[in-house]
Amino acid sequence: MRPDTPAENVDHAAEAARLERTAGLYPEDAEALLLRAAAHLELSGDRPAATKLYDRLLSSGTPSVSLDNPSLVRALKASNLWEYDHEAEARAIIDGVRAASPRDPAPWVIVAEALESHDELEAAHETFTEGARLLLTDVQEPPYSTHPLLYGRHRVRRMLGLPHDEWDALADTLHTMPVSLDELHDPKRVWSLGSEDPADLEAEISRLRAELGAYREALSRPFPVAMLHWPAGELAELIEAYPALSSEYPSYEEHLATIEAALRELAASGTPNLGVVPGTVPSYEAFAASEGASPADPALLPQYATTLAARGLAVAWPPQRGAACWCGSQRPYGECHGTEGAVAADR
């Protein structure tokens, strides 16, 4: 589907089928592609087919698909199930997602919004709060990905008539649109849609324009400036197959240090939306073939990284507090490459 294709002109069933075929050709991207396919199926009204795709991803017997974010898939499945009268199963999955305490804000937002949309406001508030407590306690600057968590919590608290707390104040600070969050989340707004007073309708149009501006801003955020990371085994395979690239990667330790140093320099210069994207030799070779270029050409490496980032495969840098380091060591980032002097130590 072209990015400028109007939504009403999309054949969602055909687009889902195309994405499924593409997933078969690019198994390393299967998770992202099949999730998009499931979204199209939901929009087409074929929610049972979307559930089958979620089950396909979650099935341990699925060949060549290793989930990066199983909690996200489960959250999407629960939200979808509830929309076609499978409430009990949806609730059970939501309880499981909450018990898993994912470090990614997206599953928290999805299950909380599912509860909210079915008037389970107290449970939605509890879920938003659990996610915020887990991901934002002692965090000085909330990552962009956590903003919907704070906005959703603010909205539900407004509907419940609860007074503002510190996280509500933080949400107000992060919100930059002309209309305040309090006004956007005012429960009385819906009443104005049925008003015969032109002033009420004009005010609501102004609010909706502000919301649309926020959505457009979120959708237009650029792909991350992503640094290409070769895991140790992939890097060894790459150098063995293409010795000419050894000058780019004298050692694995220096490769890691170069990534961290470059990201810190970019951050210091004010570059936003930074990330790290992992490469694999088969994927890189396929990309080189699609470009009609040699994998031994160093100039191809940044193009490959940009392409992977455009597919949504980049991991945000720096990782959230307590999250594992981007290098794959499984150690917390703050105890690995996030420490002062880590770059110098690797070098």
TrEMBL record:
InterPro entries: SEC_C_motif, TPR-like_helical_dom_sf. It holds the Pfam family SEC-C. This is SEC-C domain-containing protein. It comes from the Bacteria.
